[in-house]
UniProtKB/TrEMBL annotation:
<protein>
    <recommendedName>
        <fullName>Glycosyl transferase</fullName>
    </recommendedName>
</protein>
<dbReference type="InterPro" id="IPR029044">
    <property type="entry name" value="Nucleotide-diphossugar_trans"/>
</dbReference>
Length: 296
């Protein structure tokens, strides 16, 4: 009998900011609230986190991040963004992903208002998902932090070499969707991260650029930005924090299926006074920076 491919919805969370954990919980609820199909057709939810207690009692497959893993994955605490890529590779290994299985990673500040089936429907043997193509690396000015890697050849651990080319594009990684067969891209991406950092590039976005390059060698990358909503900007994030706190104070102890239904009616739209307050804050911040004043 042919084995049915499995679907996994995955999150990697480190640090102790409660908003990240509440954001992940709500993202899970929102994703499942917009899933078209019966409960048995849903993806299994997997969370790799430092503080797994935020998900206790929920129907979620939990993996803890211990101190040694965090130290190793962050290159001795010198590059914390590497934890995402290494964590996803670890999840894939722990789940023993087979070639046709599908793994979807989402940032914790995302939520949904349309059918979420499109994500897993769009992860195929010949294509992977990322958020959207941010920039062609060759188009960046000499003052950019990526300039140090242009027109250079880097030796990788597997004996191959790497250099930026005209197709080298950095994709945002708020969404990553792969098959089990594509899991090996995380190891190639890790070689790039190490080589480029050793070459002097300290950009905090190296994890997503390296993964973009690794996946694009093997498959077509498909953007998923239009399929979700997010509150990643500073003003939206402040308001999103309040929305999340209110939701979980009111509903966090209710049955999981009831929380899913309630999540569908939550709005992250900021009231006008919050939008105005955010604009004022940004202008004050620019003025303080212009006159060399310290942050309040």
């Amino acid at each position: 009998m042919t084995r049915t491919a499995k679907k996994y919805l995955a999150f990697v969370i480190y640090g102790n900011d409660k908003t990240y954990y509440q954001g992940a919980r709500f993202c899970i609820l929102s994703f499942l609230a917009n899933w078209q199909g019966n409960e048995s057709s849903r993806p299994e939810v997997v969370v790799l986190a430092e503080e797994t207690e935020h998900f206790s009692g929920l129907p979620i497959h939990l993996f803890p991040i211990n101190a040694e893993q965090k130290r190793e994955w962050s290159l001795n605490n010198t590059y914390h963004f590497r934890i995402k890529n290494r964590g996803l590779k670890y999840i894939g290994e722990q789940l023993e992903l087979e070639q046709e299985d599908k793994l979807l990673f989402l940032d914790t500040d995302t939520y949904f208002e349309q059918s979420t089936n499109i994500y897993f429907d769009s992860i195929l043997a010949e294509q992977s998902l990322m958020f959207f193509p941010e920039v062609a690396i060759n188009s960046l000015p000499e003052t950019n932090e990526y300039a140090v890697i242009l027109n250079k050849i880097f030796d990788l651990e597997d004996g191959s070499t790497y250099s930026v080319n005209d197709k080298s594009t950095m994709w945002a990684s708020a969404v990553i969707g792969i098959t089990g067969a594509q899991l090996k891209a995380f190891d190639y991406a890790d070689q790039l991260i190490k080589a480029l950092r050793n070459g002097g590039c300290k950009a905090h976005t190296l994890e997503q650029f390296a993964l973009s390059e690794a996946l694009s060698r093997e498959v077509t990358l498909v953007p998923s930005k239009e399929w979700l909503k997010h509150y990643s900007t500073s003003g939206r994030k402040d308001w999103g924090r309040k929305v999340l706190e209110s939701f979980f104070v009111s509903h966090g102890n209710k049955p999981f299926e009831e929380q899913i239904k309630l999540a569908k009616d939550v709005s992250f739209t900021r009231p006008l006074f919050e939008v105005i307050r955010g604009h004022i804050y940004k202008k004050k911040k620019k003025l303080r920076k212009l006159f060399g004043l310290k942050e309040e």
